[in-house]
User: Fold this.
Amino acid sequence: MFGTPGRRAVEERLDGLRDELDVDFCVVNGENVADGVGITPRLAERLLAAGADAITLGNHTWRRREIVEWLPGADRVARPANLSRYAPGRGLIVAEARGGEPVAVVSLMGSLFLENARGPFELVDELVDDASASAQVIVVDFHAEATSEKIAMARYLDGRVTAVLGTHTHVQTSDARVQPGGTAAITDAGMTGPHDSVIGVRAELAISRMRTGVPIRFQPADGDVRIEGVLVECDPSTGRATACEAVRVPVP
Ligand SMILES: [Fe+2]
Assistant:
């Protein structure tokens, strides 16, 4: 989700949407909530209060300094597991679904065009083993730039986790599916935020920077706000997915 428009949409609509779609557990990627880059403890708490059960982060995890001290105590917020092994916080969290079932949430970042300390494929097996020790249902947020890397990760984890959901590129892809082994996947879950924009940013500012190369402070746009995401159905006793569908809801 992106900026104040995205947060407002979540605060206004998430509760109702959870009822309409009969959602037991909701994961929000929150790394762009603070004016488009980063997250603060206060905003994270607002997202959790608005109905998110877990928050994942990404390449903008450290953009707001106040997160550094707060993250180790935030048991429903996961930052990418493949940051430095000495980074505060954790890449795997476990939270309860509506019925009390544990759900493991893994945050992992891709290696193409993104800076991380370790390659995602290097540590994903260990993460999945750790997650399996606490939960049947395992959701992996793979925060990555390249479609190839996201599809490869989804294939690699097929049969071992409930879902591999791509984030970071902010454009919902049309490949929501359940793979043969029972792992749901989508290359990008889309953006909850202003779509009359360049991936959330006011278009004229993004275009100006691209045309001139002159750095400029980006501001979130505010038009055509939508809630986008993906709805995964699964068997909680096995953790295998049975359906996977992209969700796109205009927010007037
Ligand atoms: Fe990102």
Q: What stands out?
A: Residues 141 and 165 are 5 Å apart (CA to CA). The first helix runs from residue 3 to 21. The longest strand covers residues 223-234.
